[in-house]
Design goal:
By secondary structure, this protein is of the alpha/beta class. Helix content is about 35%, strand content about 20%. The protein has 16 helices and 17 strands. Strands 16-15-14-13-7-12-11-8-17 form a 9-stranded mixed β-sheet, with helices on both faces.
């Protein structure tokens, strides 16, 4: 019989009130409310008893109107859909308060929280999820503290604040956000969220590396030739020009998602599963990144933006034709990088990263490519494909190992075969949504899947050198690629210069 080992260090989630600031916005509608519903219904009642969810936003709406909006959100976005017989159990937890922008808004929030806690018999354990624009985060934290809504960090009851990415728009603003957070909150009360860390396969990358003895001896520059990380999006800008056009792909995706994946691949084994130890090991991997300075930016970084093309059989507009885009901002929708982790384990091993919008399809994967065998025996006079360990994050979650095997027959013919694990077929159930994991971890007070201040600072330090060079040298090319392709030819040449090519995720 297969043995299943359950390891959990986190405390069980405690009853609390989860306040969603910006509850009428897109994130709450698409992700937060469906995730909370799934924890209630499909998570076998993982929401603690009596726990309440209070929406707080500018939009004028009654509590009943908010419940109806939540119902529509669940119907549209929850993977399992809405189960009529169980909806009322979740809806009973929901409440709503408008007036986020009012001068007395946070005093009114305090009064509503006290009323909810009295009515439901809840302790004053509070989570404030800042589902607000990045430039509103600091003001929200200041006003929460000013209204007396932040409890002492070591008190009988907890106050926790969840901050969505991006943390700042550059190194200076990120440090300013962190200073504001630390002025009003202890680090133990801050949960900087990156939803990629809640994805099942991303978490499993950590388990694969450190729960299996076969990997440690080969997870280094003696056995690995290079690593590729691709995070591809098929959708375009949509209605997000106001956010995306001043930001671009480097800030939006590389500074957080791709560097998170790189740190999980490159990190040293942490001394324990304690969240502080895990976060320290990941930050150390980023500290070893070789800065992309001076001429290296031109040589090792490719940027481009999409032009019109065909995606999923439909003709789509180019980036400059999207409503709200300002061409003078020169925002990139694609970026590819060649980077190095300058430490003992990874010295000389290139990491190739790429991400973009309007690519051939939505897919994310990590490819660990092992060194080729010597040019003797089977490799004499014929090129043999290297072994590749692939971790597929989306859409077909799982991992695979490409090896070479003899083809059946009287001749000695060698061809690649794939040892493949698909989560859906192996475990017989769909993976939980990333936000289900992360919301539950906030309720438990576990920081393992959240960003530390040092990771935010170090990732911005790396990205800032590239941004500064782009700003100083306008002659650095900003290429283009056809929507529905895998990016610009310059990205292919980045690998071709090393005799390599991108793997298709």
């Amino acid at each position: 019989m297969d043995e299943v080992l359950t390891i959990s260090q986190a405390r069980p989630p405690q009853p609390c009130t989860l306040v969603i600031l910006g509850a009428s916005g897109d994130l709450a509608t698409r992700k937060l409310l469906p995730a909370l519903y799934n924890l209630e219904v499909y998570g076998r009642g993982l929401l603690p008893p009596k726990t309440a969810v209070l929406g707080f936003a500018r939009t004028e709406m009654t509590p009943e109107g908010f419940r109806q909006r939540a119902r529509e959100a669940v119907q549209r976005h929850a993977p399992g859909g809405l189960r009529e017989e169980l909806w009322n159990r979740f809806a009973e937890r929901l409440d709503y308060l408008s007036g986020l922008e009012r001068a007395d808004g946070f005093e009114r929030l305090k009064q509503r929280l006290q009323a909810i806690e009295t009515a439901r018999g809840l302790p004053p354990n509070r989570i404030f999820y800042l589902s607000v624009p990045p430039d509103a985060v600091q003001d929200a934290v200041v006003r929460l503290d000013g209204a007396g809504l932040i409890a002492p960090p070591r008190g009988e009851h907890f106050s926790r604040v969840v901050v969505e990415k991006p943390i700042g728009n550059d190194l200076a603003s990120a440090m300013e956000v962190n200073r504001t957070l630390r002025k009003h909150l202890a680090e133990s009360q801050i949960f900087r969220i990156d939803h990629y860390l809640g994805k099942e396969v991303v978490q499993n990358l950590f388990v694969l590396r450190f729960a299996n003895g076969i990997f440690e001896d080969i997870w280094n520059n003696r056995r690995i030739a290079h690593v590729q990380i691709t995070v591809a999006e098929s959708e375009g800008l949509g209605s997000r020009a106001a956010y995306y056009d001043p930001v671009g792909a480097l800030r939006d995706m590389v500074q957080n998602h791709l560097l998170q994946l790189l740190s999980l691949v490159a990190m040293e084994p942490p001394v324990s599963l304690d969240p502080t130890a895990v976060r320290h090991a990941k930050a150390n991997a980023l500290r070893a990144l070789r800065p992309a300075e001076g001429s290296r930016v031109r040589e090792q970084v490719v940027r481009a933006r999409y032009r019109s093309g065909v995606v999923d059989g439909q003709r789509v507009a180019g980036y400059l034709e999207e409503p709200g885009v300002r061409p003078e901002r020169r925002a990139e929708t694609f970026v590819a990088l060649k980077v190095f982790v300058d430490n003992w384990r990874w010295s000389g091993v290139p990491f190739y990263l790429r991400t973009g919008k309007r690519l051939a399809r939505r897919a994310s994967a990590v490819f660990v490519v092992f060194k080729e065998v010597p040019e003797i025996l089977f490799n004499r006079g014929a090129w043999l494909r290297p072994n590749v360990f692939a971790i597929r994050i989306q859409p077909d979650e799982g991992f695979s190992l490409d090896v070479l095997a003899k083809e059946p027959g009287l001749d000695l013919a060698v061809r690649p075969v794939r040892m493949n694990l698909r989560y859906a077929s192996e475990f017989g159930q769909a993976s939980p949504d990333a936000y289900e994991h992360l919301l539950l971890e906030v309720m438990s007070g576990d920081h393992t899947l959240f960003l530390g201040a040092s990771f935010v600072r170090t990732s911005w330090e790396f990205v800032q050198t590239i941004l500064d060079q782009w700003q100083r040298d306008p002659s650095i090319p900003l290429g283009s690629y056809e929507a529905g392709s895998w990016g610009p030819p310059e990205a292919d040449r980045l690998l071709a210069a090393d005799g390599r090519a991108w793997f298709e995720p």
